[in-house]
């Protein structure tokens, strides 16, 4: 994949981006500042394994990887046409494809992961080994926060969670209020989501099996002996595509840690927004499908949404952003109200 293609991050629980294009810096106005607070490394002890399987609880509040921010109806995103420069396109969004000619303003920093808390953008600085950095949209100042190489950046309340590529893909967190920086999980992690007080993650140290750990680094436990390629929280249970069983759809009950096969399908990139589930159907040329799941009766039905091969896609409240397999360096947009 062309390195210009987007890999950046935002949890589905969107934060309010205050201000319009006037709050995004132009290159000539950006300033660099040293951190007002020293980043404090807090090295946690070895994560505590859970003694009681019933201590794992799933709630209705989850945060997932998503590369697009919204200020009302205006889109803020790393623009692959301009080396992932943080850019803004005002509403209404262009039909079908995002292009640089639609960009009205930008911050002159490259990012492949970014989130927004209040008036601060936190991102991985692509020109500095993806180090954790911030950009204040009010006074237009840039601050390097630490030397971690950041991937899979997710914000939860005032804390940032991410995989540190400089330390064997372990999960770290950064407190934006105190500047404390600490190790959360010492396993090598492929991907993760946050649900309430828990992190659910793909443990590369154990053949990509699903694990959970609390956000404070305690109650680590294995959830299943199955390998998962993607996973979401739905109606109090964990849904995942089981790579150990031809990528079929499974559910996991958090109260018993028992797993059940829901449907036979060759699925990838399972994602959810507002209880609407989507996936890439490997049995239909990697087309994008929506998915309806009945947990009580252990059944699922699917419907084609985008009838072309998809390389990657992301869900937002406004619609679906995706890159087709035949043109992975462009970003396309499908409004939820539009038809396949």
Structure overview:
The chain is mostly beta strands. It has a single domain, classed as Methylamine Dehydrogenase, Chain H (7 Propeller). Helices cover 0% and strands 52% of the residues. The protein contains no helices and 28 strands. The strands form four sheets. Strands 1, 2, 4, 5, 6, 8, 9, 10, 11, 12, 13 and 14 form a twelve-stranded mixed β-sheet that branches. An eight-stranded antiparallel β-sheet has the order 3-15-16-17-18-19-20-21, with no helix packed on it. Strands 7-28-27-26 form a four-stranded antiparallel β-sheet, with no helix packed on it. β4 and β5 form a beta hairpin. It is globular. The relative contact order is 0.14. The N terminus is likely disordered.
Report on the biggest sheet.
12 strands, mixed
> Count the helices. How many?
0
Helix share, percent: under 10%
How would you classify the quaternary structure?
single chain
How much strand content do the residues show?
A: over 45%
Radius of gyration: 20 Å
Number of domains: 1
Structural classification: mainly beta
Uncertain stretches of 5 or more adjacent residues = 1-29
Q: Give the overall silhouette.
A: globular
- What is the overall pLDDT average? 85
CATH topology: Methylamine Dehydrogenase, Chain H
> Gap between N and C termini, in Å?
26 Å
Q: How many individual β-strands?
A: 28
CATH superfamily: YVTN repeat-like/Quinoprotein amine dehydrogenase
CATH top level is Mainly Beta
């Amino acid at each position: 994949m062309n390195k210009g293609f987007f890999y950046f991050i935002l949890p589905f629980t969107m934060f309010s981006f205050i201000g319009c294009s006037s709050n995004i810096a132009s290159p000539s106005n950006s300033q660099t500042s040293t951190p007002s607070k020293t980043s404090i490394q807090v090295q946690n002890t070895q994560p505590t394994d859970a003694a009681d399987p019933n201590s794992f609880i799933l709630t209705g509040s989850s945060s997932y990887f998503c590369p697009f921010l919204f200020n009302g109806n205006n889109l803020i995103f790393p623009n692959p046409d301009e080396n992932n420069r943080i850019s803004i396109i005002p509403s209404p969004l262009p039909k079908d494809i995002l292009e640089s000619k639609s960009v009205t303003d930008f911050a002159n920093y490259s990012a492949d992961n970014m989130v927004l808390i209040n008036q601060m953008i936190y991102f991985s600085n692509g020109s500095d080994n993806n180090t954790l950095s911030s950009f204040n949209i009010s006074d237009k100042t840039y601050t390097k926060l630490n030397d971690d190489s950041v991937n899979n950046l997710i914000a939860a309340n005032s804390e940032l969670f991410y995989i540190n590529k400089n330390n064997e893909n372990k999960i770290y967190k950064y407190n934006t209020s105190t500047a404390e920086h600490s190790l959360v999980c010492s396993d090598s992690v492929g991907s993760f989501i946050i649900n309430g007080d828990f992190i659910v993650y793909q443990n590369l140290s154990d053949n990509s099996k699903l694990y959970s750990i609390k956000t404070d680094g305690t109650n680590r436990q294995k959830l299943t002996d199955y390998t998962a390629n993607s996973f979401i929280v739905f109606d109090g249970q964990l849904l995942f595509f089981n790579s150990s069983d031809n990528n079929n759809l499974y559910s996991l009950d958090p109260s018993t840690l028992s797993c059940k096969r829901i449907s036979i399908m060759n699925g990838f990139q399972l994602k959810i927004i507002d209880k609407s589930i989507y996936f890439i159907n490997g049995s239909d040329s990697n087309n994008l499908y929506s998915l309806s799941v009945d947990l009580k009766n252990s059944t699922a039905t699917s419907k084609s949404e985008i009838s072309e091969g998809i390389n990657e896609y992301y869900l937002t409240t406004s619609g679906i952003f995706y890159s087709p397999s035949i043109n992975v360096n462009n970003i396309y947009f499908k409004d939820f109200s539009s038809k396949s």
